[in-house]
Design brief:
Radius of gyration: 47 Å
CATH architecture of one domain: Sandwich
CATH class of one domain: Mainly Beta
CATH topology of one domain: Immunoglobulin-like
Strand content: 25-35%
Helix content: 25-40%
Largest sheet: 5 strands, antiparallel
Number of helices: 2
Structural class: alpha+beta
Shape: elongated
Strand order of the largest sheet: 5-4-7-8-9
Number of strands: 9
């Protein structure tokens, strides 16, 4: 009986926990890792010093370039003033008509008159000249020689070139048809250039 009592007692001990046993501790969950710091790193003093030095060099280089450009323009104006003639012109052929455009600056150098001539060519049926916001045109009448259109423009810089568009209608030109045209640049140094190509044109 002693052995049976011991077995029953031992089984009863295994079936239920002892009164003094504590429950198992809860599982420990590690805290989440901290969020990465997205604040941009502040440039170091050395970085700011480098940026400032580069900016200063850029400004200095720009100032030197601008100064060189200003000097070059001043030299060009001096050279142009030294050979100032107060007139310019060139001859050309458009639509079978030999024509000439002439610019003449006045003695005060505050106005320039531009004129388109066809030198009494009977084949010239239409002449037009345009510069800035002014234009003038002439049409042949009754088979007579065509008159010569001219315009006068104010001058703000007496050394500046004048760009002029000329249009010529030749023997087969009729009213309403588009005439032949070209644009020339007239310099007060008695030189003329093609406005599109920059090519120097023949002297009048």
């Amino acid at each position: 009986m002693a052995d049976q009592d011991w077995w029953a007692k031992d089984n009863a001990k295994d079936a239920s926990p002892a009164w003094h046993q504590a429950p198992p501790p809860p599982a420990v969950v590690p805290p989440p890792p901290p969020a990465p710091d997205r604040t941009p790193a502040r440039p170091s003093r050395r970085t700011w010093t480098t940026v400032a030095a580069v900016a200063a060099l850029t400004l200095t280089a720009g100032g030197v370039w601008q100064h060189a450009q200003d000097e070059r323009r001043a030299q060009e104006r001096e050279q142009k003033a030294a050979v100032y003639k107060g007139r310019s012109g060139t001859e050309f052929s458009l639509d079978g008509v030999q024509a000439e455009v002439i610019a003449q600056w006045n003695s005060h150098r505050d106005h320039v008159t531009v004129e388109l001539r066809s030198w009494y060519d009977k084949d010239a049926k239409y002449l037009r000249i345009t510069a800035s916001d002014k234009d003038a045109s002439k049409v042949q009448k009754y088979g007579w020689y065509i008159e010569e259109p001219a315009i006068t423009l104010p001058v703000h810089d007496y050394l500046a070139d004048v760009s002029v568009r000329v249009e010529v209608g030749g023997k087969t030109w009729t009213k309403g048809t588009k005439p032949s045209s070209r644009t020339v640049r007239l310099s007060p140094t008695d030189l003329a250039y093609d406005a599109k190509t920059g090519q120097r044109l023949p002297h009048d």
